[in-house]
Amino acid sequence: MRAVGLITEYNPFHNGHLHHLQQSKELADAEVSVAVMSGNFLQRGEPALCDKWARTEMALAAGVDLVVELPFIFACNSAPHFAKGAVQSLDAIGGMDHFSFGSEVGLLGPLQTCADLLIEKSTEIERQSQKLLRQGENYPTARAKILRAMLPDSAAIEVLDSPNNILGIEYLKALRLTGSDLEALTVQRVGAGYHDLQADGSIASATGIRRMLNDGEEVSSFLPKVVNSTLLSILSGEKVPDQNCFLRILLARILRGAASLQGIYQVEHGLENRLFEVALTATTLEDLIDGIKVRQLTRTRVQRILCQLLNEVEEEVALTLLDQGPLYLHLLGCTKKGEKFLSASRKGRRLPLVGNYSRIHNQLQRFYGRDSECYRLALEQLQLELRASDNYALLQKGFSARRQSDFFEAVRRQQ
Prior knowledge:
The chain is of the alpha/beta class. The chain is 52% helix and 10% strand.
C-alpha cells in the first residue's frame, strides 16, 4: 500500500489541515496517510486545546488513516528536535516512501538550499550565533541573520521570514542527518498564515481559531463538518486545560526554591533565580511568562521551559533521549485502511508499536531484552510520557481521579 507520512499537531484539525492532507495524498499518489502527532503538549510549549485522544478522533474522522504519538521530549522542543524526532518516527513505522509538509513557499528548492547550508556550515553558524547571543539576540533571530548573509540568492533568503518554511527546512535537515530514505514533498499553505488571527475565506490558522474560541466566537465554518461536533463537545465539557490550574502547579513547583530548579532541562545557569523571583509575585500565567522572558529568550522558549518544569524533565535524561531518538511507537488511532497498512508494513518496522500501555513492559522487554541499555532508556521515555499525561489531566478544569490514561484508553478505531 502506497503511504504518505505527515507531521502534525492538529490543535485543532481545521480546513487548512484538510487541504494539506488531500494534496499530500494526491502528490504522493498514496492510498494511506500516516500522521505522527504531538501528544498533550505542543512544540510552542503549550498544553493542547484538547487531549491527544480527541485530536486523534478528529484526524481519523477527517480522513487520516493512522495516528502515532510523537514523544514529549521531541514534541515540546525546538524545531530541530521536533523535526528530527518526527522524521525518525515516520522512518521507524516503515512502509512509506514519501512524507509531506506544508510551507508558505510551496517549493523544495529554496528550502533545501537553506537546509544544506545549515548542515555544511554548522560550525561557523554556531560560532557566529554564540557571538550574537552574547550581544543580546535570541537564537532564532541570530541564526536567521547569519544565514541571510550566507545564502546565495534572494529566493532562499525570503523563505526565512515564514514559520512553516523554517520548520520545513528542519525537516529537510533531519532527513539528511538521519540518513532517511523518505522523499520530501511540500504543499503550499493557503489562506491565513501561521500566526494570523484573521481568517481568509474558509481557512483560519490554528492560532486564530484558538483565539476565536477563547473569545466565544463561532468557528464551525473553519473546520471540516466531521470534526466540528467532536471539538465543540470536548470544549463544552470539563476536559480542557485551565490556565489558572497551570499557573498554580507551576508556582508550587518553582517556589520549592531556586536550587531545586537546577538540573531541569533548558533551565540554564542563572535562570533558576529569575524563575524564583518572578514566581513570588506572578498572579497570572501571562505575568509569569512575561516576567521570565528576556531579549535572549523567545516566548515559545519560555513556555517550553515551563513545560519541562511541570513534567520534571531532568537535563541528563532529556539529552540522552534526544540523542537516542524515539524508542517505541505509541499508536493512538487507525482506520481499517490504516490497520491493513500496519499489517503490510510490519517487516519494515524498526521500533515496537504499542497500543494500550497495559502490556508495554512485556513488549519492550521482548524487543530490547531485559538487561539492555535500550530497554532502560525506553523506560525513561515511558516514565516521561506518563508524567506528561498525568499532568495534562491535572490541568483540566474537571480532572478525574482516574489518571494514567495511557494504560486504559483504547486505540481509536474508525471505519
